[in-house]
Amino acid sequence: MNVKNDLLTNLHREVLHGMYFDYNDTSSKFIDLITIMGSLIVFESDIKKDKKDLDISIPVFDVSFWEQEKAAIEALFEWITDKPVPVQFTVINPLDNDDVFLSLPANQDVALFYDDIESIAGLNKDKSLFDYIRIINKDNEKQKQQKLAAFLRKSVADSSEILDAPIKLLIKRKTTPAAILFVIAIAAAKSYFNDGSKVFYYQSKQINMDYLNNPSLLPKAAHPRTYQMMNALYKSASVDMSIETPLLQKSRAEVIKELPKGYKQQIKNTNECVRMKRKIDKAMYTPCGICIACLQRKIALTAAECEVYDGFYQYDYGQKIAEIINEQDQQIYTETLDLMQALYEQVKINQPFTEEEQHIANEFIIAFDVFLSKYSPF
After folding, report:
1. pLDDT for 1 beyond 50
2. Residue (of 7, 41, 34) closest to 192 by Cα position
3. In 128-157, which positions are buried (b, 16+ CB within 10 angstroms) versus exposed (e)?
4. d(C-alpha 196, C-alpha 193), whole Å
C-alpha cells in the first residue's frame, strides 16, 4: 500500500479522535465519506497537474455501495477540480478503535466556525443548540485567535461542545472547496453520532476572482451546486443528513449590514490577508490592505458602511496608489486594483447572468462603485 493510501485508510481514526464513532452499516457510510473527501485533498495537486498514471484508489468499508455511486463521486471531483477524475474503491475492514467510549446521543446538529465574518454571522443567525467544529485561522494573530475563541464560547450554550478541526491536511488549504467538503464530512459524522441530522456551514455569496479566465461568476466554494452534490450523496446513502448553507444567497456586505453591533465588533479579530497567509514577509503581523483578499474585505465593509469595525492595515482604506513609497507594494496595489477594475468592467459587459449569478453581479458592481467613490485609490 502506498503512502497516500495508508494515510487514507487511517484518516477517519485521526480526524474523529476523541469523538464517539462505530462501524455499523450506516456509520460506515459517514466514515467512508470522510475518506472520500480526504482523498480529494490528498490527490488534488496531482489531479490539477495532470499527473500521468494517477491511481486514485480510495479505501472504503462498503465497496459495493460506493461502486454504485462512483459516477456521482467522479462528477463531484470533476466539478471541484475542473478535470476528469476516475476513481476506484478498495475494501478495508473495521479497525480496532481504542477511542470508542459509551456516549449518550446529544441530539445536537453541528455547525462550523471558520474564524471569519460569515461564521460570526452564523452565531447571530442560528440560536439553536449546536456542537461546533472550529477551524482556527493560524495565520491570524494569536491574540485575535483567542478573542474569537472566547466570543464563540460565550455565544453558545454551556452544553455545546467546541472541537478544533484536525488541520494536518488543511495547512494552507483551509478554505479550498476540497478542504471545506472534507471538514463538512467530518461534521456530518459528528452530527450523526450526536443523533443530529444537519451540518451548518456559513458561506456568503461571493464573486469569482478568476472570472476573467473562468466562465462561472461564482467560485466553487460559494456555488450552491457544490453543496447540492454533497447532499445528493447523503440522500443516495439513505441517511438523514443535510448540509445547510443559510448565508449562501446573500453577499458579504448584506451579511455584515444585518449584524448586531456586538457581533460587528468581532470583525476586527478576523483576518484574510493573502500575504500573511503566504508568509511573504515573516515580520508581517498586520494585514497588508493591498492584496486581493484585503481589498475584497474593504469593499464589502465599505458597502455595508461598517469600516469602523475593521482592524488595522499596513495601508488603510484611504490609501492612494501614488502615495505608497515602497515600489513593490505600489505595484501590488496597482495590480490588485487593475484586476478588480477589469473584473468590474467584464461583469458589467456580460449582463444578464443566470438567476444564481445576477444577484452577486449587482452587489459587486454597487459595492465597488461605493468604494471607488468614497476612497478614490487611483
Report:
1. no
2. 34
3. eebbbbbbbbebbbeebbebbbebbeebbe
4. 7
Bridge partners, residue 133, by sequence: 112, 163
Higher pLDDT residue, 25 or 37?
37
pLDDT at residue 49, rounded to an integer: 87
Q: 268: exposed, middle or buried (C-beta count within 10 Å: 0-12, 13-18, 19+)?
A: middle
pLDDT tens per residue, range 39-86 = 999 998 889 888 888 889 999 999 999 999 999 999 999 999 999 999
- Interhelix angle 70-81/25-48, rounded to 10 degrees, is 40
Per-residue burial over 334-369, b = 16 or more CB atoms within 10 Å of its CB, e = otherwise: bebbeebeebbeebeeeeebeebbeebbebbbebbe
pTM over 0.85: yes
On the question of a cis peptide bond just before residue 352, with omega within 30 degrees of 0, the verdict is: yes
CB atoms within 10 A of CB 322: 9
What is the distance between the alpha carbons of residues 279 and 140, in angstroms, rounded to a whole number?
11
In the structure grid, which three cell numbers stand for residue 117, read together? 465574518
Among 294, 323, 317, 332, CA closest to 370: 317
CB 125 within 8 A of CB 44: no
Write out pLDDT tens, residues 193-205.
999 999 999 999 9
CB 89 within 8 Å of CB 70: yes
